[in-house]
Amino acid sequence: MEVKKDILWRVYLSFIGMVILGIFVIGKAFYIQQVQGNFWTTMDSSMHLKYRPIEAERGTIYSEDGNMLSTSVPIFDVYVDFAAEGLMENDGKRFKSQVDTLSICLSNLFKDKTPELYLHEMKLAYKNKDRYYPLKKKISFTQYKVLRDLPLVKLGKNKSGFLMEPKDKRINPYGLLANRTIGLSRDNASNVGLEQRYDSLLKGKTGQQLIRYMAGAYMPVDGGDVVDPENGKDIISTIDTYIQDIAESALMRMVVGNNSEHGTAIVMETATGKIKAIANLGKQKDGSFNEDLNYGIGKATEPGSVFKLATLMSLLDDKYVTNSTIVNCEGGKKTFYGLTIKDSHEGTYEITVKDAFERSSNVAFAKLADQYYHNQPSKFINHLHNYRLDAITGIDITAASGKPTIKNPSNRSWANTTIPYMAHGYEELVTPLHLLMLYNAVANNGKMMKPYLVSSIKQYGVEIKAIQPVVLVDKICTDETLVQLKECLLAVVQGEHGTARKIKDSTYLIAGKTGTAVSALDNKGYNKGNKVYQASFIGYFPADAPKYTIAVVIQNTKESKKFYGADVSGTVFKEISDKIYGSYLSTKKYIPVNKPDSNQYNYFGMKNELGSIFTTLNLPYADSGVSGFWRSMEMKNNSGILNAPPISISTSGSVTPNVIGMGLKDAVYLLENMGLKVSSTGRGKVMNQSVNAGTHFKKTQNITLILN
To answer: How much is the pTM?
Structure first.
């Protein structure tokens, strides 16, 4: 019995010991979790390491003439480690002795807080030993250079605790210039244009840096592993900044002056297919115009009479007609299967095919197409397929490329009237770039080129890839057809009855075709009250040795005063071609003539500055104004007259002044002091303003100035 009691006592003792041990373990676990939980969590976090990506410097997009179109500039995020050993040593003597001066310097540099507020915030962060305190984000490189020489900061990160993290900010130095084509590189939105298409090359390869989580923030580990990023490659575009500038200025002048809805102008180098300029302007809610959509590449519409080139090419290649074939226009009005087609000018009867193209007769081309292709429509459609009018253009920014629509007999919407209507530019959808490629093929002796926007790729200044022109179609038509097409396109501008004879030039030859397509307003149908007009002109110059092909397409509104292709788009074409010819192609040299200047010259500016100019040049002038700072100036025969502006100008008023004739500096000074927000395009004097002089405006209202 004694042995049994002894064994039981030992068992009970062991059990009690195990219970006590269990209670102790559970109690310790509870203590660690509930009492010391924050301490151990912080300890765990402080030991947590990971790699942070280091973004590479994004490559630059250049124009072909060497100007930056899109580039990255450095910006910096500034953090402070208030628990840095160098900042804490000697009871924070270094920090306490310089923080007052530093606060004043920071306030003067950033101008966002008072010195007292900077002092209060930094002292509080120092007291809390904040390890990664965000002092200021996205400071410029200029501010960074000043900051690193300020008191305390100049001692270096180990002693001051200041950490500068470099980043890149994407800018377009030329502002709106080709903005939609070049595109934007954005952090929180999808990229567009070349920025999107060549993103993988531009962004380079990301590096990495070892960081540790400390006191609520990740900080770089001194001496930790760093893999340097590989900078992005540079893209050399085909854009010529001068041609782009004149294309945008000419287009802006027309869409603003004619109150249009939107427009595009594309300039292609004939021999290569390089896009030298592409301007896209759309009307905004406030009445201003901006590069909002890529209308030239991404918007397919019914083209109107500019499509007649494809119809004529088909008829000539099939040898159904020649330029001298007689066609009866029946007075400019004919009914096809219950629907009537009219010419813009009625009264024409029997004329040649060439005359019909020159006059842009809808009836003539509808009749010819219906006569020869009504019973064999696939033959006509195959021609359009061979002209690549039903295919994606293949241009670099494919994401923006509009998809064309060319009907075929299997479509449910195919009808007896389809061929007559397709023949003169309806019941098909194509982009301006599609037709530009076709016209360019004619100018290029039948060789259709692929349009492209990038000519080469460089890395650290060394070319690593040159992009060569690509031929899409070796021969778009026969040589015999080509000769006749060129005669017709030349007659449109040079002929007595040509629809574009207004843009005829005695210095160089232009060949092309006008188009005035009826568009349905707000998709409400083509009845008289709803229709508006799309004006087009596509052509090339010099016609005897083509260098450039240009497409101009502008969508007008019901308020537009001009709507014919020649008056609207032809005018823009002529302005662009004149300046390109004068700058790049003309062989004539300027010879000064020593004769008195009989031309009147007008300008608008500040009275004192105009007077100073006359005095410096020793020219006589008279001031007829009584009061005020601004004067309009007339200059004739080396003598000037200053007049008071017709509309009283006051910087406190709400009536829009007339700034036409001013230089940009004076115009911006005057308008912005009155409270208007100014944007401009072009160079030189103000030639047009989007808010009419004499009308009342609201503060911060936008006004666009067009310079020439």
So the answer is: 0.71
